[in-house]
Amino acid sequence: MKLDVLMIGGGMIAHDQILPSLYQLQRRSMLGDITVVAQSAPTIRSLAENELIRKAFPGHTFKAYPDYQANPTARDPELYKSLLAQLKPRQIVIVALPDQLHYEAVMAALRHNQHLLVVKPLVLSAAQALEIEAEARKRNLVVGVEYHKRLDDRSLLARRRYRAGMFGEFKLGTARLMEKWYYRHSNFQNWCTAENSDAFTYIGCHYVDLVAFVTGLKPVAVSVYGIKDRYPNGNEGYLYTDARVIWENGACLNVQNSLSFPDAAPGTNTQGITMYFAGTGPDGAPRGGWLEHSDQYRGLKYSYIQEPSSPGATMFTEPSTDYFQYVDLGGPGLEVVGYGFRSVEFIIRNILQVEAAPEGDRPRLLRELDEAGVMATPANSFYNELVVEAGRQSILSGGREVAIQQPSPA
Ligand SMILES: NC(=O)c1ccc[n+]([C@@H]2O[C@H](COP(=O)([O-])OP(=O)(O)OC[C@H]3O[C@@H](n4cnc5c(N)ncnc54)[C@H](O)[C@@H]3O)[C@@H](O)[C@H]2O)c1
């Protein structure tokens, strides 16, 4: 079975991860036609004409909207709605829009009976997540939230070992994910502004999700202290954040995020997590457990003979093989590898499996996906919306602690 794809949004995440992953799945005959709609013609042009993606996927193209060849300056924020209306029912819509626009696009796609892959965070409020869950359930549609760190093998290993009792119980953790300074010059300055989002909401949510994914614990309170800074265009954003998440067993996770990792530093970011646990050994003696992940992976060191042209790329670099890379397996073109690809593939496979099943089996399959808890769904990752919503309240009130109420999804 093959389904067609409409991707809404053609910015950084579409370029870095989603479009090449879709092409690879198309190459494997899992997907039919791919359409991408962005808000403006220049954005869609730079995605369509990207040299590396073209080289990796010769013969693969997407239908581009707005039509940048006919009108190179076109701009239409409503265009995706008419494209949704034209899409056959029960295909795949990918939402790769700025955080605060997810809700409207997701609901529109569900009302047109489309399965969804949504980049994280799903939405910014718990009530919206519940609405999405109910709408999808009513129509037997898959909504996969693309928390790609879940498909990193080190997360899956930690999850299995934690659940086998090998670490003991989570007590204290510290995580960080600092994006490079040049992000401030990107389209982020137009939307990741103080009134819409912040460094924790944008990227810290990965580590909150990961701790819940590994331990099965639920967060109960959040406080986020944010430091505002100005983007080059003068907009203000919370570009540095320090969050404290308290969990139902009393454990505490600290998450620091920023758009501040120096452009001159090697690699695309710095990120990782340390967790401390406590439990009882087989001899009955109390013991401490410990886990440390260097998530940017610094095992490779390269020094090139010329400055690479892409932003934030350096002559001395420490590339990670983990998230997303292009490799030559003899062609045609290049293959994409890493958990960024595996995560997209996993969600698309789940959608194809549900769609291929007889109608009567779909509710059971959807329930199994929720219960297995490996693919994030509105039902099984609802705590993320609770944390984001409480985190926004906290940051806007100077960092006070906000308690999370745990209503169970309808
Ligand atoms: N590590 C990660 O998981 C990760 C990394 C980057 C981004 N993201 C998420 O991806 C989403 C998008 O981020 P990005 O980095 O690609 O941002 P971006 O600013 O580079 O791209 C946003 C895209 O949305 C498009 N857009 C805006 N309004 C639109 C409309 N009305 N119709 C059609 N297109 C519209 C813009 O044209 C642009 O192509 C965000 O939710 C972000 O949090 C996740």
Fold topology:
Layout: E1 3-8, H1 12-27, E2 31-37, H2 41-48, H3 51-56, E3 63-65, H4 79-86, E4 92-95, H5 102-111, E5 115-119, H6 126-139, E6 143-146, H7 153-163, E7 169-180, H8 188-191, H9 199-215, E8 219-230, E9 236-247, E10 252-261, E11 269-280, E12 286-294, E13 302-303, E14 316-317, E15 325-327, E16 335-337, H10 339-356, H11 362-372, H12 382-396, E17 402-403
Parallel strand pairs: 1-2, 1-4, 2-3, 4-5, 5-6, 7-10
Antiparallel strand pairs: 7-11, 8-9, 8-17, 9-10, 11-12, 13-14, 15-16
Helix pairs in contact: 1-10, 5-6, 7-9, 9-12, 10-11
The structure holds nicotinamide-adenine-dinucleotide.
Structure explained in plain terms:
The chain is an alpha/beta fold and 410 residues long. It folds into two domains: 3-149 and 338-379, 3-Layer(aba) Sandwich (Rossmann fold), CATH 3.40.50.720; 153-319 and 389-395, Dihydrodipicolinate Reductase, domain 2. The chain has twelve helices and 17 strands. It has helices at 12-27, 41-48, 51-56, 79-86, 102-111, 126-139, 153-163, 188-191, 199-215, 339-356, 362-372, 382-396; strands at residues 3-8, 31-37, 63-65, 92-95, 115-119, 143-146, 169-180, 219-230, 236-247, 252-261, 269-280, 286-294, 302-303, 316-317, 325-327, 335-337, 402-403. The strands form four sheets. It has a seven-stranded mixed β-sheet. A six-stranded parallel β-sheet has the order 3-2-1-4-5-6, with helices on both faces. The radius of gyration is 21 Å and the shape is globular. The mean pLDDT is 96. Nicotinamide-adenine-dinucleotide (NAD) binds at residues 8-14, 37-40, 43, 77, 80, 96-99, 101, 119-120, 187-188, 202.
